[in-house]
Write a structure and sequence with these properties.
By secondary structure, this protein is an all-beta fold. The strands form 2 sheets. Strands 3-2-4-5 form a 4-stranded antiparallel beta sheet, with no helix packed on it. A two-stranded parallel ribbon has the order 1-6. It starts with a strand and ends with a strand.
């Protein structure tokens, strides 16, 4: 979920998801929600909004998971 500090939903400029082998997914103009099934693994997720990148490490398991960005 992508949102501003005040809770207003945002559309990220781009989102890139990478695993240990390289890029898995790159999506331009996504939000406020991106839903994607990923292989069980550690992933690096970078979201960019207004030219400001934010990167998070996400461990994907068999359980549903939510990751939130606030700019």
């Amino acid at each position: 979920v992508f949102s501003a500090q005040n809770g207003e939903y945002l559309v990220a400029d781009t989102v890139a998801v990478r695993d240990a082998r390289g890029e898995v997914l790159a999506v331009p103009g996504v939000g406020p929600i991106l839903m994607r099934k990923l292989a069980t693994s550690d992933h690096t997720v970078t979201a960019i909004y207004s030219g400001r990148p934010e990167t998070k490490q996400v461990k994907v398991s068999s359980q549903e998971q939510n990751v939130t960005w606030r700019w």
